[in-house]
Amino acid sequence: MKLASYWHDTAAPFTGATPGPIGGRVDVAVVGGGFTGLSAALALAKRGASVALLEADHVGAGASGRNGGQCNNGFFQDFATMEARFGFGRAVALYRAFDDAVDTVERIVAEEGIDCDFGRTGKLKLAAKPEHYDKLARARDALHRGADPDVRLVPRDALGDELGSGGFHGGLLYPKSGSMHMGRYVVGLAEAAVRRGARIHEQAPVRRLKRIGRTDAHDVETARGTLRAGQVLLATGPSMSGPFFRYRRRIVPIGSFIVVTEPLPRATLDALMPRRRMCTTTQTVGHYFRATPDDRLLFGGRARFALSSATSDAKSGRILEAGMLKVFPGLAGTRLDWCWGGIVDMTQDRLPRAGQHDGLYYSMGYSGHGTQMATHMGQAMAAVMAGDRDANPWGGMPWPAIRGHFGPPWFLPLVGAWYKLQDRLH
Ligand SMILES: Cc1cc2nc3c(=O)[nH]c(=O)nc-3n(C[C@H](O)[C@H](O)[C@H](O)COP(=O)(O)OP(=O)(O)OC[C@H]3O[C@@H](n4cnc5c(N)ncnc54)[C@H](O)[C@@H]3O)c2cc1C
Fold first, then answer.
1. Is 56 annotated as ligand-binding?
2. Which of 126, 321, 386, 399 could serve as a FRET partner for 3 with CA atoms 20 to 30 Å apart?
């Protein structure tokens, strides 16, 4: 079992980075080479701005190259919860922002000719307990009142058409959701940004930002030199390094882990996942799984409340294998070829945050629902930076610091224990 991301290993590497020292002036510096940063760099360059993207490691090194491969619409939260908080109109608008985000990915893939197996496979949210199915039925009713007439219930006795597992009590199907090969997508985005004129600097961690007076301009100091940028976008996800203390106090970095099996016979996969849906389960500490383009099963979940590292990934892999065999007992004896972990940029209410603070633009906090929203927000923030404030669907949301949180998430084991207790009780 290789402790690396399947997405990285099965995509051609990005070779378009600009080598050498970093300096001079640009209209915009984008910090972070994941979906947010790359999508923003692409949109900004298309608008005619000079753009330098600064990535501490390589493009896709963060969550964008290490995720579960699902490109879903829909909230993590119940629509009714969102409606109670925001009112019907705004809740619908925010829900639709996820629909728009999947559309944005589909559009960019088509416009830029990115070969990443994008498809509208649909997402199936699976009820882990009988009472969870009743909750899904209430969610369907709430969504049918105006946000999404397309979602539909799959009762337990019809689930066999969707899934070769007896472990669930029905599901809720979101037909607009999609999937893609995340490694090929992230490289394709980077290549498109370079083709449109953006410069991408890898191995260029940003160490310091110095604002020029009261303007939006900053001197951006990297390990390879300093450049002056008229505007700066922080697209750094759950960054643990660099001058981003304000954001570290508002984002909890939470590990999520994934295993990928050896290739399965086509007939086996047809029996387990006949429609190749993107699957998630209803527990708070639940699982997500899908088939890969080369007929493997990708199976992920929180596994442990630990950050990703070589030892913690291997341990999490063993926990996930046990989870996978509970869902698909017939896979006993199947070899696992990959296991890796990544860090989710979780906000307290599990909703993204984007805007401008102290002259810096930012977009982050997708809380595990970001393959589509990060892409969408890259485009949206490019529009915001060009003067269209209304382009940001998350604008105006308060974002206080999390009390007692100063960077390292010392409280994770407590949160994990609490979530697991909730899953046992409800
Ligand atoms: C294991 C896992 C599974 C997931 N599964 C799904 C899924 O199936 N579907 C879904 O929608 N979402 C999923 N997500 C979430 C999704 O992948 C993210 O929301 C999305 O990729 C965020 O993109 P980003 O560009 O904002 O951040 P990232 O991809 O994390 O990029 C941030 C980049 O900033 C760089 N950086 C940080 N600090 C600095 C610095 N000082 N200087 C320069 N660069 C810096 C990092 O190296 C990194 O490359 C998952 C996440 C994880 C971890």
1. yes
2. 126
Ligand 1 atom having least distance to the Cα of 222: 42
Instruction: State whether the beta carbon of 32 lies less than 6 angstroms from ligand 1.
Output: yes
370 lines ligand 1 (CB under 6 A): yes
Strands of 353-426, DSSP E: 353-357, 360-364
Residue 186 CA to ligand 1 center (angstroms) comes to 11
235 within ligand 1 shell (Cβ under 6 A):
yes
386 is in an annotated binding site: no
Cα 384 from Cα 372, distance rounded (Å): 18
Mutate to test the pocket of ligand 1, among 344, 346, 372 (most ligand atoms within 8 A of CB): 344
70 lines ligand 1 (CB under 6 A): yes
Q: How many domains does the chain have?
A: 1
Annotated binding-site residue? 55: yes
Q: How many CB atoms lie within 10 A of CB 399?
A: 21
- Whether residue 142 is contained in a domain is answered as yes
- Main-chain dihedrals φ then ψ at residue 52, nearest 5 degrees: -120, 125
Looking at residue 401, which CATH number applies to its domain? Answer: 3.50.50.60
DSSP, collapsed to helix, strand or coil, labels residue 354 as: strand
C-alpha–C-alpha distance, residues 105 and 96, integer Å: 14
Nearest CA, atom 39, ligand 1: 56
Q: Cα–Cα distance between 117 and 104 in angstroms, integer?
A: 15
- Tens digits of per-residue pLDDT, 301-323? 976 666 667 677 788 889 999 99
The DSSP bridge partners found for residue 400 are: none
- Chain segment 121-163, per-residue pLDDT in tens: 999 999 999 999 999 999 999 999 989 999 999 999 999 999 9
For residue 126, what are the domain limits? 6-414
**Residue ranges in the chain whose pLDDT is less than 70:** 303-308, 310, 416, 418, 421
Per the structure block, which two tokens stand in for 168? 């669930």
> Which of 64, 15, 46 has the alpha carbon at shortest distance from 198?
46
The protein residue whose alpha carbon is closest to atom 38 in ligand 1 is 239
Per-residue pLDDT tens over the stretch 259-290: 999 999 999 999 999 999 999 999 877 999 99
Local structure of residue 408 (DSSP, 8 states):
S
Q: Residue 344: enclosing H or E segment and its boundaries?
A: strand 336-346
Residue 57 Cβ inside 6 Å of ligand 1? The answer reads yes
Q: Is residue 422 domain-resident?
A: no
